[in-house]
Design goal:
The protein is mostly helical. Helix content is 82%, strand content 0%. It contains five helices and no strands. The two termini are 18 Å apart.
Amino acid sequence: VGAAAGWFGGWVDAVLMRLVDITMAFPPILLAMAITASLGPGVRNALIAMVLVWWPIYARLLRAQVIAVRQREYVDSAEAIGMPL
C-alpha cells in the first residue's frame, strides 16, 4: 500500500493514505484485542490481529522511502534518457 501510494502519487496516494489514516485513528491495542476476540483465542489469531493493526505504520514508512528515491537525480536521469519506470 505504501509503495503504491509513493510510486503513483496523486489521487492514488490520497486515497490510500486516507485508508491508512482511518486505520490509525483507532487505538492499536484495543483494536488488536477486538480483532483477537472476534477471531477466537490463540497465538495465531493474536498475530493476525497485530498485523492488521500495525500495517499502517510500515505503509507510511515505505511511502516516504519510495518518494525519497523517486526524487533522486539518477531517477530523473533515467527518465530523461527514456528508461521505462
